[in-house]
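Support request, please re-run this one:
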Amino acid sequence: MSGLIAVIIIAAIVVILLFIFIGIYNGLVGLRNQVKNAWAQIDVQLKRRYDLIPNLVETVKGYMQHERQTLESVTNARNLAQSLSGAGVADRAKAEGELSGALSRLLAVVENYPDLKANQNFMALQEELTSTENKISFSRQYYNDEVLKYNNKTQMFPSNMVAGMTGFKAGEFFEVKNEVEREAVKVSFPGNPPAATGTK
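Re-run finished. Output below.
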């Protein structure tokens, strides 16, 4: 009789451990999916920025005849960032930081062209770009918050054991490490102080 009780106790412990394992595993899956969803939101905003840049360059080109190098740097940075759309987080963060820096330099040069600043099409593009940059910034913050929660789960006991057994790996933060790449994209309108958005 005592042998049967021991078997029942062992079986009960195994069942409890199995339920704990399943609960932790499902929690990890949920957090990983939240990270993927947050990354998808960044991707949408980055693609929006890629679409805006050719129109912006085309609009300013007629006014900025002597700024060819500045315009080319924006176009090249945009093309590089777009070509890395399937790359890892670190590579994309670096490319997007370079693109933000190139845009900042372009918009700083625009300050020397009053006629361009007053152009209605340019002003509309500025407004769209500012809105997009803000959305990118918020999306990056949300993504990094989700990665932090996911990484905590994969590294803390006992969930780290389940993560190790089932192949869950730490997520990458969307970080800009080069100080030059931290330049904000500044957009100013006639009569208003500059508005700035940054990257995380």
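Confidence is low (pLDDT under 50) at residues 179-184, 186-200. Helices lie at 2-61, 68-83, 89-110, 114-117, 120-155, 159-166.
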